[in-house]
Amino acid sequence: MPMKKIMLAIPDEMVKALEKEQKERLLETIPETIRVVLSDYLRSRNRSK
């Protein structure tokens, strides 16, 4: 799957939430955490249609 890099600025509050999610999911990086959370969200959104 081809990938593109995207620069993203997010508020400190969101960074803290992502760090918490990262620890809970035992992931190594914030970008990896964002990919997993976004993937879960899109998958669940598609199921509810």
Please provide a brief summary of the model:
This protein is mostly helical and 49 residues long. It has a domain at 12-39.
Description:
- The chain is mainly α.
- The protein has a domain at 12-39.
- It contains two helices and no strands.
- The longest helix has 18 residues, at 30-47.
Topology diagram in text:
Layout: H1 12-25, H2 30-47
Provide keyphrases for this structure.
49 residues, mainly alpha
The low-confidence parts are none
The shape, in one word, is: globular
How many beta-strand elements? Answer: 0
Separation of the first and last Cα atoms: 25 Å
CA radius of gyration: 12 Å
Helix content class: 55-70%
Which percent range describes the beta-strand content?
under 5%
Average pLDDT confidence is 94
Structural class: mainly alpha
- In DSSP terms (H or I, runs of 4 or more residues), the helix count works out at 2
**Series of H and E elements:** HH
Largest sheet: none
